[in-house]
Specification:
Length: 243
Amino acid sequence: MKKNIAIVLLCAVCFNSLAQTKPAVKKKPVTTQKTTAATGGVVLNTALDSLSYALGVLDATFFKAQGVEKINYALMNKGFEDVLRGRNTLLNNQQCDMTVREQLQAFMRKKAEAVIAEGEKFLAENQKREGVKVTPSGLQYEILKMGDGPKPSDTSTVKVHYEGFLLNSADPFDSSRKRGEPISFGLNQVIRGWTEGLQLMPVGSRFKFYIPYTLGYGEQGSGSTIPGGSMLIFDVELLGIEQ
C-alpha cells in the first residue's frame, strides 16, 4: 500500500542520518537557540521546538530541490495538525500521494524547460554538420571508426569503452576510459539512446552519439549528475558481444 510520499521521504532522511551516525555519548537535546537577525527572532526554547523546526527544514530542503517555490503554510500546518490530533483529513493518503507526485512532475518539467530548449537548439544545428546521421527516433550519430564485426541485437550483452558528456561540458560526467576498465551490460538495461545506437555498430566500431533527452533520462534526469531534460553526448567504442 502506498504511503504519503512526504512522510516516507522524511522518514528516509531521518533513518539515513541515524544509520550513518556512530554510537556516541548521549548528548543533551538542543533546547535553546540564540536570537539573531539570521533566525528572524525565533528562539528554540525546548526539544519540541527544535524537533518542530527540524521537521520543517528537512521537508522544505527536499521539496525546494524538486522545484517547489511556495506553499500555503496554513494548509500545510492544518495537514500536520489533523494527522497528529487524529482528525479526518481533507485528502486520504492515496490522494495525497497522487497530488504530490503530479505537482512534483509539473515542477520538474518547469525546471527542465530551459535545459530542453538548449539541447533541442544544439541538435537542430548539429544535424546539419557533414557526417552526422539522424535516425527516425531523433538519435544523432557520427562514425569515428567503422568496425567489421557483427552487430548486437537489443537483447545482447556488450562490452564497451565510453565517455559521457553534458552539453557544453569538456569534462565527462562518466568515463570507463578514465577508470581504465571497459564495462559490460545488456542493451535492454540501458537508456533508449544506447539500446538503439549500439545496434548500429559492428564490433570494433567507435561512434559518437547525440542523444535527445527523450531517449536519455527524460525530464527527471539522473541524480545530481544529469539535470532533467539533458541532451547527452557519448563517445562509445564497441569492443565485443558477450551474449
